[in-house]
Fold:
Amino acid sequence: MSGSLGFPAYRQIRGNGVSERQRTERTTIVDGRDRLGKPLYERENEVTAAQKAVEGICAGGGNGEGRRGGLLFFSAAAGLGKTTVLTEIRRMAAARGCTVLSARGSEQEHTVPFHVVRQLLQPVLASCTEAERREIFGGWYEIAGPAVGLFAQQTGTAGPDPQGVRDGLDWVVTQVAVRRAPVVIVLDDAHWGDLESLAWLSAFAVRARELPVLVVIGYRPDEVPAEAQAFRELIDGRSARPIPLHALSPEAVAELVRGSLGAEADDVFCRECWVVTGGNPYEAVELIAKVQDRNLAPDAESASLLGELAASARGTGLIKRLERLGHAAVRLAWAAAVLGTEISAELAASVAGLPPAEAQAAADRLRVARILTGTRTLEFIHPLIATAVYQAIPPTTRTGLHGQAAWALADAGLGITAAARHLLETHPEGDPNTVRQLRAAARENARLGAPDAARRCLERALREPPAPEDRAGVLYELGCSALLTAPATTVNHLTAALEQPFLDPELRENATFRLAQVFAHNDELAKAATVAGAEVARSHSPRARLRMQVAHYLWLVFDAHEEQASDRSLRLARLVEHLPGETIEERALLCIRTWDAMLRGEPAADTLDVAARAMGLSYTDPDWGFELPSVAALSYMYADECDRAEELFSSAIAECEQVGWSGAHLSFGFTLLGLVWFRRGMLVKAEECAREGVRLAERVGDRVPARWYAVGLLVDVLLSRGRVEEALRVARTYDFAPPYLTAVVFPDSQTVYGRLLLARGLRKEAEAQLTAAGARLEAKGIVNPTWCPWAGHLALAVAEEDPARARALTAKMLRRAERYGTPTAIGEALSFSATVAEDGQALPLRERAVEILRRSPSRHAYAEALIDLGAELGRGGGTDRATGLLSEGVELAEECGADRLAERGHAELAAVRLRLNGTRPLARRGASPAEHG
Structure:
C-alpha cells in the first residue's frame, strides 16, 4: 500500500467503491422530501418502523452493550419512493449519532465483485490509520483486504475461497460495530447488487440482531435475479417481513401538488396529476417540476396537457426530450449510462468522444433537463432515467461504447476488473488483447475470492475467440474456475482443453491432473484414477510422471469399490520403498502409502516409519490440498500417537484459516481434530469439533464428502455418550442413511449407521448394514479393526441368535488388532470379545483389556473396560476390588463426557454395595450396544 490515504484504490471511482468526497458531491434524490423540500407523503408506517428500529439500535450502553440489531426490508416498484425512505433513515440515524454505512446497487455494475461491499466499508476505513485498519481486520487482512479494495492480492497467490472472504467481512463489520456502535447499514437497489456482496450481506444480516447493527435494504421485488439465491432466501425467510411501498392516493398527490404549486390548484388538475402518474411519487414530482418549468396554471384547462408532460419523464417521451438537447448531450448521456453510477465527468467525456468544453456544455444542459446531476461526479437523477437511456442506445453503438469505456478505464489506471465488466458487453472480434485482458481480470477476481466473476470473464474470452494456440489455456483456466462449484461443467472444459491441437506438455499435465481431481470431487473415483493412470506413460518428465502416479494411487486408495486392491497395494509399497521424501511428489506418495498400510492393518511401527518420511506437505498445497497431509496425520492418531496428531491438525486448521479456506477444508480440519479427541475418549470436545465441522460443511452443500465425515463423527460420538435419540435426530436431519458415497469416508458411514440401528434395538437391520460394510471393507483389504470396528458391532448384533458367529468375529478382530499392535486396537478387541464370550471366559479377557488399555490414549475405552471388569468381578463376589475399579471407571467416564457409561457405572457400583449389605440385585452382562465405541 502507498499514499497518504493508505489504499490508492479508494480514490478510484470505477469498480472500487465510493469516496466520501464523491458522496458529498452527489445531489439529493428527487422523488421525495429533499427534491421539493416537502415531507414524505403516506409513508407514516414506513417512517414509524424506521424510527422504532433506529431507536432500538441506539438504546443501551455507549459501547454497544445491551443494544440489539435488526433487519428492515423495503420493497417497491421503481419510482415508489424507497430511496427517499432510505435517505430519511440515513438522516435520522446520523442525527442519533449512528455510524452509517451506505451503498447502492448499480444496474451496470452488478457484475463487479464486491462493488457494494466497497461502497459500504471504504469510507469508514478511509478515516482510519494504517495501524487501525490492520487492527480492525485482525488475521483477516490478507483474506478480506483485496475484496474491500485495500490492496491488490499478489500475483501468483492462491485466492481464498468465497466463504473465507465472507467470514473475513463478518469479522471486519463486527469490529466496526464494536468500535463505532451503533451501526446502520443501508443498501438501496439491492436487486442490482453484485452477487458476491449479496451473498455476504444475506448471511451477515441474519446475525445482525446479535450486534449493535441495523441492516436496512431496499429492493424491487420483481427484479431480484434468480442467481441471487442467498438474498432471495433472506427476503423470503422469517428474519423480517418486507415492508411494501404503495402508490400514493389521489389525496396525497393533491397535497403534493398544492404544496408545490399553491393551494389554488384545483381538484380537476390534481386528480389528473394522479391519473397520469398512477400515484408514482417519482413521476408525480417530475410532472410538477415540468409544470413549473412551463409556467402552467394548475387548473382544469392545463390538466389536458399533463399526459404529454408525464410521458416525457419516462420511456420514449424521455428519450425524445433527451434528443432535443442535441447530439453532444445524447452522446454524454449514453456514455454516462454505460459507465453506471458515480460517473467521472472526465471519463464520460472520453467515452463519449467529446472535447472538454463541449462535454461541459452538454452536462449543463442535461442538468437543467433533470437528467443528470453533479459536476465532477455525475449521477442520473433517478435509476429509471439511467435504464431508459441505456436501453435507448442502438445495440451496435452500445457495445462500441462499452469497448471504449473498457480502454478508457484501463488507460486511467482504474484496474482490470473495472474494465472487464465492459469487455463482457462487447461483441466478439477475435482480438487477442481482449482475451488477455479478460484472462487477467479472471485471475484478479479469483484472487479476490470471486470465482463466479472469474468464470464469467473466461467464458467471454472463449467466445472472443482466443487464438488457436491460446484456446487450450483458456479452457483450462475456465475449468479450474468452476472446479468445486460446477463439476460437470469443469469436466467439459478440461476435456475440451485436452482435445486441442496446440497443447503444451505442462498444460496437458495440469489439465489431466485437474480433470482427475474434479472426477474425484464428483464422487467418481474410478474415473479419476483411470484418467491419472493413463497420463503416467505420456508424462514428459520424471517429476510429471511421479505427480500422475500420486494422483492415480490417491484416487484408487480412496475408492471404496476399488477392484484388485491387494495388487495395487503391493505395487504402491514397492514404488515408495526407497523414496526419501525429498520432493513434494515423493512426500505425497509416502502419505498415500502410510494411509494404505494403516488401513490394511500392517504393524503400526512400520506405518509410522513411512509417515515420518511423508511429513512436510502443506495443508493448502494447490495440488494435494488437505487430503494427503491429513491422512498421514491420522496414521499417527490410529497408531495411538494422539499428541502428534492433535498438533498436526491444529496446524492444519490454522493454515486453512490463514489463507481463507473456510469451506470444506476447514470443515475437514475440525472433523479430523474431533476424531483425535474421540480417539482420546474426550467426547465433549469431540462433539464440539464435530458440530463445528457440520456447521462449516453445511455452507458448502448437501451430501458433499465434508458433511458425511462431520455428521458421521457426530453420530458416532453421540452414540458413545449414550444419547441415542439425539444421534437419530442428527442422522435424520442430515439424511445420514443409504445410499453412501463411493469414496472411503471415516468414520465409515455404513458402520456408524449400523451402530445407530443396533443402539435402537433394530438388530436384524443392524446386522444387514454391518455385514455389508464388512464385506465391502474386506474386499478392499481394509482390515484394521481400530480404523473401523465393524466386526465388533456385528458381533453384538448377532450374539443372541448366533453366539458362535459372534465369537468368531471378535476372534478375527483380536488377531488383526494384535498384528497392528497398538494398545487401543488390542484393548477394544478384547472388550468386544469379552462381551460375547462364553460363560466363564469373559473375566480373563476383561482383565487383559484393562491392563492393555491402561497404556492407551483412549480414556473412554479404558473407563468402559474398568466398569465392565468391575461389574464382572462384582457379580462374581469380588466386591472389594470391584468397588475400586467401578469408582475409577465412573470418574473417568464423567471426565470423558460418557454420560450413559457413567450412569451404568454408578448403577453397578450401587449393586456391588448392595451385595456387601447382603442383597443380591439382578445380574447384568456387559455394556449395552450403544455404549461400545
